[in-house]
Amino acid sequence: MNLEIFKTNVETQEQANYLLRLLQHCISDCPISFDLKDSNRILQVQTNREISEVVCSLFVKQGFYCQKL
User: Fold this and answer.
1) pTM of whole model > 0.90?
2) 59, 10 in Cβ contact below 8 A?
3) Cα–Cα distance between 66 and 60 in angstroms, integer?
4) pLDDT tens digits along 17-62
5) 4-33: string of b/e by CB count within 10 Å (b at 16+)?
């Protein structure tokens, strides 16, 4: 498995939980977590396929910023 890392603008645990629920519907077979203590508010996804377009698209549709690092 590869670790995909994304920079986000998620600020609260409530926002992170909401986005995690949405992401789990799209990519349910991948472990997903946030590190909101990091200055880049990191989203980490363990996957063996290309998911960056799905992740970034979902964030944009919900009004958040997301960039693959």
Assistant:
1) yes
2) no
3) 7
4) 999 999 999 888 889 999 999 999 999 999 999 999 999 999 999 9
5) bebebebeeeebbeebeeebeeebeebebe
